[in-house]
Amino acid sequence: MSLTKKLLEAIFTMWKSLSETLTNMNVISAVSSTLFIIMLGFFLRRKNILTDQVGKTLSKVVLTVALPALAFNSFMQNIDGKTLSQGMNVLIWGILIYILLILASPFLYKKLPKDKEEVLAVLTTFGSTTFFGIPIVGAVWGAKGVMYSSIFNIGYRIFLYSYAYIKLSGLKLEMKNIKQMFLNPVVIATFLGLFLWLAQDLVPHISVLQSSTKQTVDVAFYRIDLTAPWIYKPLTYLANLASPLAWLAIGITLGSIPFKEAASDKLSWYYSFNKVVLVPLLNLALLALLTLTHILPVDNVALATVIVMMATPTATVAAAYAIGFDRDALLTSNASLISTFSAVIAIPIWIVILNLIAQTPIFN
C-alpha cells in the first residue's frame, strides 16, 4: 500500500509539473514565437516575397550586429559567487564536451565509408550554437542564459576553427582561421563582456540611482546599463533583433531548399537524430551525474543553456568547410536541412523537458 501511495504521489507530482510547464506563458510564448517566425520566413520564401539573398543578409546582420550586442549586454549584471561558479563550470564543460564528442562521434558512423564517417562525425560535434542556439536561450532564459551560452561557446569556437578545419580540409591550421576565430564580432563582444564582468569589483565604482527600485547602488563605472543608458539602450534594441531576424533567416533557408530530395536520404535522418536528440541527451546524463556527485555542478539555467546549444542543427561554418573542400557536399547539404527541420521540432520539446527538470531538486 505504501509503495502504491508513493507511486501515485510521484505521478501526481509529475503531472502537476507538466501542467505548470505547459501553462507557463513564458515557455509557451518562447516556443510559439520561434515556430511562428520560422514558419513566416518559410512562407515568405515559398511565395517568393523574400529571396535567398534576403536570408543571407539577415544572417549577416544577426552575426555582425545583433548577436554581439546580445552577448555583450548579457554581461552587464552583478557578479556573485554562485553565478561566477556556474560560469566557470559552463566554461570547463564547454571545453570537455567537445573533446569527448570529437573522440566519440566517429563511433556512430563506423559502418560507413571513411570519408562519410569523418564528415558526419564533425557535423555531429558542432552545431549552430551562435546563430540558432543563443537567440532561443535568450528568449526563454534571459540575460543569464545568454551569458552562460556565450561562455559555453568559447570552447566551441576554439575547436570549430581548429579541429574541424584541419579534419575537413586535410590541411594545417591557417592564419586566416586563427584571425577568424579571434576577430569574429561575437567572439570580441563575448571576451570583452566576460572581462568586464569578472573585473567589475576591481575597478572604481560610482553611485547610481536605479530607476526600477529608486535606490542608490554602487557599480563599476563601465556598467553602462546603469551609468550610461544612452549607450546601453541602442545596444538593447540591436540585441532584441537577434531572435526574430535569426528565426526569419532560418525559415527563409528552409524555404529555399527542395525538401523532398533531402527527406529521402535516410542517413541524414539518422545524423539528425544523433544531433538533436542523442548529443543533448548525453549532455543531460553526464551533467546530472557530475551535479549529483558535486564534481562539476550546474544549476537549471546553466543546464538548459547547454542542452539547447547542443540540440542545434549543423553548424554553418562546419558545413561550409565540408562543402568548400568537397567532402560529401550533397550529404552535408541534406544533413543541414534535415537537422534544421528536426531541431525546429526537437528544441521546443527540449524546452518543455528542461522546465520539468527545473522543478526537481537535482539542478537547484
From TrEMBL:
Recorded protein name is AEC family permease
- Which spans are transmembrane here? 25-45, 57-76, 88-108, 120-141, 147-166, 178-199, 235-255, 276-296, 302-323, 335-358
Keyword annotations for this protein?
Answer: Cell membrane, Membrane, Transmembrane, Transmembrane helix, Transport
The record's Gene Ontology cellular component field reads: membrane
Q: What Pfam families does the record point to?
A: Mem_trans (PF03547)
Q: Which residues form a coiled coil?
A: none
In terms of InterPro entries, this protein maps to: Mem_transp_PIN-like (IPR004776)
The cellular location(s) given in this protein's UniProt record come to: Membrane
Q: Which organism is it from?
A: Holzapfeliella floricola DSM 23037 = JCM 16512
Lineage top rank: taxon: Bacteria
Q: Which GO terms describe its biological process?
A: transmembrane transport
Membrane topology classification: Multi-pass membrane protein
